[in-house]
Amino acid sequence: MKQRYLHFFSFLFLSLQACVPTYSQEVYFFSDSNNPGYYDTGLAFKSGTSFLEQTGSSGDKLPTDGTAFQGRNSLRLRWNSRSAGDWSAIVIAPGFPFQDISNTDTLAFWVYAPNGLNKADWPNIFLEGAPGSTKSRKYNLGNYASGLDAKTWTQVKIPLSVFFSDPNQTGINFKQIKAIIFGQNAADAQEHTLLIDEVRTYRAAATSNLIAPELFRAKGYDSHIELRWKNSGNSGGTAFRVYRSLNEGQTFSLIGQVSKSDSIYLDFVRPLGLNVKVSYRLTSASGSGQESQPSAVASASSAPMSDEQLLDMVQEYTFRYFWDFAHPQSGLSRERNTSGDIVTIGGTGFGVMALLVGIERGFITREQGRDRLLKMLSFLEKADRFKGAFPHWMNGVTGKVIPFSPRDDGGDLVETSFLFEGLLTAREYFKGSTAEEQQIRSKITGLWEAIEWDWYRQYFQNFIYWHWSPNHQFAMNFPVRGWNEGMMVYLLGIAAPTHGVPEGLYEKGWAGNSNYVNKNQYYSVLLPLGPALGGPLFFAHYSFMGFDPRNIKDKYTNYFTQNRNHTLINRAYCIANPKKFKGYGENCWGLTASDDPIQGYLAHEPNSGPQDNGTIAPTAALGSFPYTPVESLGALKHFYREYGAELFGPMGFYDAFNPQLNWTADSYLAIDQGPIINMIENHRSGLLWKHFMANAEIQTALKKIGFTADVTKVETLPATDLQLKIYPNPVKKNLDLSFVQPSSETVKIELNDTAGRVVHRLLGPTRLNTGLQRQQFTLPALPKGTYFLQISSPTYTSTYPLVISQ
Known about the structure:
The chain is of the alpha+beta class. It has 4 domains: 26-202, Galactose-binding lectin (Jelly Rolls, Sandwich); 210-304, Immunoglobulin-like (Sandwich); 310-709, Glycoside hydrolase 144 (GH144) (Glycosyltransferase, Alpha/alpha barrel); 715-804, Sandwich (Immunoglobulin-like). It is 24% helix and 27% strand.
């Protein structure tokens, strides 16, 4: 689990790598903010009687808004200018650089007013130079823009000659400009709101270089339309602009703009209704706002999709991360969508399994998947290894290790185990007699047999250690001990055909942790193993994309039951929502390791500490599909249909979102995309479970460890399976209950508080016959709040949230 926390440092490292130099003919002051709710390098000041909205921990930041012309957010100016008052909003590029705008000729930005803006109500604008320099004169924006219609993006352009040629302005070095500043103009004592996006200067381009986009096409889904076009890189523009028509092409309105490197745009039309027919056209635009001739019109309609179609869609979109975005030289999976040449070993294992899903679902051919895997294996054979184990990160071009942290510059056995979880699954999948498939099996076996699992015992201790480096030896000193994501390490270490470890290490090392066993109830759900409330949900995913936990058990538990109950507790915690975060509920749940608006990266989990800060990661609920199919499908629909415009992108669901802070990540991570596509497939077909478990070495290892068949069947049924109906909910005193009892058996009905304690037994244990049951109850006087109604028998348990409002 330590590795998931270390991802915070990887986040910082990659963020620094993502910084690019500013070119002199196009200078950005604001494009997007990664911070939730405010722009870190935007400063807001006010004095006297005037008002200017401010936010951030220090109270002097510029707020951002989720409505954007391009990208994720815009700056929000909300002000009330009064006599004897003043305000200014300072926009500075990240890193506080001194910008050279001397080779540009136009200052431009996009604006949007929710309620419109009169010409006389525009603020002033001025520039600030480097320290020791001075500010320019203030200019009224109304001189360069007319009145602004409500809810319409409009570009404002100001010739920089206004500033350069002003005879009354001295002391500014236009090669060292620090900030663009908006400031108070007319003191009209009225509140105004203006959203501002894409603040930059540029040198105007000639229109003759602009080429209309080709092969423009549209495809409709449940709630969005996907637009694609050919991007040959020679459009001559700096962006593409998307126009939409809702009247079959009679009139078009500008709805968005994307970078010149893009070739896809998703338009979420669900707010317009169901079965929406839309037409689109696309132009190439220059930095000065000039446009090419429009593309041919492309049309499509949204249409409600079945549950199976929704799963197809999510899997296909997520597959793109591992197929389209794989590293071009090595074919391995990039750490995240801003990683450049950094590839991740564990995420690559998940990506290998995703290839098999892609073949089975028809996203690619078997031959395409085969060839990609051969490319990956050939690269891995030549890449850095440490006693056979691969590092956490490596360079996707050279295969050389990239340190994950200062002393983590060698083998990472947890990441290596995830890689071989995927490779061993693929070895069984590609069982054909062709030379290529034989080569796949041979290469995987060679890499598998080269891993010295016994070396990672650190001189024959009873643990397997996570790291070893030739430079730092075992200085990381981190034994893999349960309960966490590392079960695969021991399973593969015991299964290894060469350099394996004794089966006794499973109990002494993995399960020998004093807090391995739990056996407490939370929200009326028994948790066999692990920390209180279960911990982050990746525990239930990473080692179980290959290992099928159904129908077998060791001396501690059935791991399907463990993972299912862990998931149910995670969801119940989000429903109870003890911290009262916005958005949490029965269809909006899932706490696990992901990007985070406050910490950068955090292993989120249910508890009273900082690990629960309102951040939900789609991978948590969607990676739990085999355990909670009904609940996970409800979450999928909610994430897509309610949050899709911000949360669903070209490669599926973004990593995380926080409704409390109005924040959505713009990141994709291999270790979070993998559980989505792979665990959905295990739910649908058991594909990956089937092929991983078919390895003879795995079956032998399970027998050595002591796994036996588990014939016990106690299912956790969703309320929908019982056809449970509760009225009213919220309830004050009298409660009516109906459900269908699946078989004649003893049943009890209890009311539990959010801590999982029984506060009142409504029924039983009482024997009920098969069929429809109707029950009426009078509740005792209980504090108002959220409770959980639980119906249970020897063969099932069903839990449903109930709100008492008295």
